[in-house]
Input
Amino acid sequence: MAISDAISINHLSKTFADIRAVDDVSFAVRKGEIYGFMGHNGAGKTTTIRMLLGLLKPTGGAASVLGHDIVGQSLAVRQLCGFLPGSYALPKDLTPLSFLRYVGAMFGLSGKGLDLRIDALLEQFELGAVRHKRLGQFSTGMSQKVGLAQALINDPQVLLLDEPTAGLDPIGRHDFLEFIRTLARDRGVTVLFSTHILTDIERICERVAILHRGKLVASGELGTLKAQYHADGMDDLYLTLARAAA
Ligand SMILES: Nc1ncnc2c1ncn2[C@@H]1O[C@H](COP(=O)(O)OP(=O)(O)OP(=O)(O)O)[C@@H](O)[C@H]1O
Ligand SMILES: [Mg+2]
Output
């Protein structure tokens, strides 16, 4: 692992019964970069992210986050990471305030420090006026802001985003991507950005890993990959790779 790597994944595998959900995958994400993690439905993106967070145990290989082994030091990894799951239902009866207090408590945060952190996040995501509104009444875009706020409650150095723009309208998507870009640029946060939306990747990522049926079919600089495949655009590259691996 290079000292400049925030996430290092080496021959990582996860098998469920007879399904090779993640199959001998290796790639590294440098500190401070927004790294695209692409693949169709069932490619193994979520399984990889869940392994990084210690929520699933690998069946082979290894990985580390900021030098901490994901199996032996998963608590340290979780303290350093923020996580926005792809699909999760916010607790309908909580408000942004009570939900963020709950998530903060899980990180061992409390008191004035936590309240100040929550105030800053609510302001940042323009949720101040609805801080006491029940989450069950929130639109997709508002829910996503609450989701991102909870992922940032512990001031993470690494952010794992699992298909974060799904369901957002064009303005919501634009604002979300700009926010992520700012976070990486101004605060040096490392972002692993899982998606199957090519335009999102092209907008904010310079490097990508592409999974197909659990296997890594390409990784590296987006520009280099495009040139290598002499494709008109990323769509063609992606389809070529997916078909080649099928
Ligand atoms: N808990 C589980 N038990 C059995 N199989 C699973 C489990 N979790 C995932 N899988 C299988 O592992 C494979 C990879 O799934 P995963 O959710 O990681 O893909 P993904 O790339 O996140 O897909 P999507 O874009 O649909 O979210 C799929 O074949 C899925 O059915
Ligand atoms: Mg997924």
About this structure: The pocket of magnesium ion (ligand 2) is lined by residues 45-46, 86, 162 (CB under 6 Å).
